[in-house]
Amino acid sequence: MKADFVITKYLFLACIVSVPIIASALPSDANQPIRLLADRATYSERTGVTTYSGKVTIEQGTLKIAADNLTVNLDTNNRSIKSAVATGRPATMQQVVTQEKGLAKGQANRIDYNAVSGIVTLTGNARLTQAGSSFSGNTIRYSLSAGDVEANAGGGQRVELVFPPSDSNSRSGLR
């Protein structure tokens, strides 16, 4: 009986993990079931910290996250998510933002999500791609609501931005 309660509690927490992340994505994502898999899950009622470890995957509609570890910090008063951190080699995330913008994919050693600001920060070998464009650097900050991207280099490296050619140029390019 206690095991069933613990599993139910984790499933509930898994459900609330993805709610803020999907706020600016396809509306249909919010209506999809959430599937979270991990080798281990722990929750502290006192601190509001939930930790998932070992080949963590989360799927809900077009949202997919894969990481070695995922830590979610909940507000202890109302159980809403304050922040989430995914780590891996690399941790990855992808989601269809809108039909027009298409699929956004991100990967980094660490992915931080701030639920208050709606900012996703990718750190360490960070890469973000969307609609044929890509940004890479040591740190990338991506606003889910505004779509703004800020990339920073580190360790003597440079930021790389790649943009696809426009349709009119692609037909008359080099042959």
How would you explain this protein's 3D organization?
The protein has 175 residues and is mainly beta. It is 12% helix and 53% strand. It is built from two helices and ten strands, in the order αββββββββββα. The protein has helices spanning 2-18, 167-170, and strands at residues 35-37, 40-44, 49-60, 63-74, 81-98, 102-114, 119-130, 133-143, 149-152, 160-162. One of its GO terms (biological process) is lipopolysaccharide transport. One of its GO terms (cellular component) is outer membrane-bounded periplasmic space. Residues 38-146 form the Organic solvent tolerance-like N-terminal domain.
Set down the secondary structure blueprint.
Blueprint: H1 2-18, E1 35-37, E2 40-44, E3 49-60, E4 63-74, E5 81-98, E6 102-114, E7 119-130, E8 133-143, E9 149-152, E10 160-162, H2 167-170
Antiparallel strand pairs: 1-3, 2-3, 3-4, 4-5, 5-6, 6-7, 7-8, 8-9, 8-10
Give descriptors for this structure.
LptA; globular; periplasm; 53% strand; OstA-like_N; signal; 2 helices; Lipopolysaccharide export system protein LptA; lipopolysaccharide transport protein A fold; ten-stranded antiparallel beta sheet
Distance between the termini: 69 Å
SS strand fraction: over 45%
Largest sheet: 10 strands, antiparallel
CATH architectural label = Sandwich
Q: Total number of β-strand segments?
A: 10
Instruction: Using the coordinates above, name the CATH class.
Output: Mainly Beta
Shape: globular
Number of separate domains: 1
Q: What is the string of SSEs from the N terminus onward?
A: HEEEEEEEEEEH
Output the structural class.
mainly beta
Rounded Rg = 18 Å
Query: What would the CATH topology be?
Result: lipopolysaccharide transport protein A fold
| Secondary structure: helix percent | 10-25%
List low-pLDDT spans.
1-24, 170-175
User: What's the CATH H-level superfamily name?
Assistant: Lipopolysaccharide (LPS) transport protein A like domain
